[in-house]
Amino acid sequence: MISDLTYNDLNKADSLHGVIRQATYLFSAFLLIGLLLRGKIMSKKINLAGQKFGRWLVVKENGRSKWRDVLWECECECGATSLLKSCELRSGNTKSCGCLKKELMTKHGMVGTPTYETWHAMIQRCTNKNNIHYSYYGGRGITVCKAWLKFENFFKDMGERPDRLTIERLKNNLGYSKENCCWASRSEQRRNQRIRSDNTSGVIGVSWVKERKKYNAKIQIKHKTINLGSFDSLEQATEIRKNAEQKYWNK
Ligand SMILES: [Zn+2]
């Protein structure tokens, strides 16, 4: 026989268990809702593919982290790759694979400035076979003149890079040299053309295909549209379009 006291104690213990169990259920439910909401918010993420953050170029989305953060496959200008989270890229906490930090030890003190980064990217895409843009530059025979392989000489010829301008080759099939280069804005690079208001990439003849997350390049020849292909980066698509302009329009 159970005495009254013991019976009461058992009852108490039982209800205590009940409370703990309920609290556990509630906690789990909140956790689940939290995770689902997080997933939902994350799925509305901004697409970073094709964007540049310092020396990183975002190539494509590549899975999620343990905490369901979107991971982006990124390629450094030097060719190194890494998986990075949106917040890491957008906060500016990481600007390169570490190569930038190493170069910061040089004498001229220009490392990290827009001018230096332009020079560095040019050298990389023309000379580094591992660079993502190599096939459209070095791989096509686009070279950097011997003097410009040294930053100091490039700087002497070109001066500081003006705000929002990029280095442009006057003749697209010739390489980078004092004679063939100038600082130009994207609109100057396409002087005789107006960008359509419905343009999705900012570059004429290149459009952003949302569904496929690719840049598509096209060109009009004698009222016919020729598809030049789809590319992961805006830079690639722009280069292909420029080559086509030269080939078909003799620009
Ligand atoms: Zn690097």
Structure commentary:
This protein is an alpha+beta fold. The protein folds into four domains: 1-40; 48-97, no CATH class; 106-184, no CATH class; 196-249, 2-Layer Sandwich (GCC-box Binding Domain). It is built from seven helices and nine strands. It has helices at 4-43, 86-90, 99-103, 114-127, 151-158, 186-189, 234-249; strands at residues 52-53, 56-64, 70-76, 81-85, 166-169, 181-184, 206-209, 214-221, 224-231. A hairpin with a 4-residue loop joins strand 7 (206-209) and strand 8. The protein starts with a helix and ends with a helix.
In short:
The chain has 251 residues and is an alpha+beta fold. Helix content is 37%, strand content 20%.
Average pLDDT taken over every residue? 84
Question: What would you call the shape?
Answer: elongated
Question: Quick one: how many beta strands?
Answer: 9
The molecules bound to the chains, other than polymers, are: zinc ion
Low-confidence stretches: none
Q: Strand fraction band?
A: 15-25%
N-to-C CA distance: 103 Å
Largest sheet, spatial ordering of strands: 1-2-3-4
Fraction of residues in helix? 25-40%
Give the radius of gyration. Answer: 28 Å
Biggest beta sheet attributes? 4 strands, antiparallel
Q: Which series of helices and strands comes N to C?
A: HEEEEHHHHEEHEEEH
Number of H- or I-type helical stretches:
7
Count of the separate structural domains: 4
Determine the oligomeric state from the structure: single chain
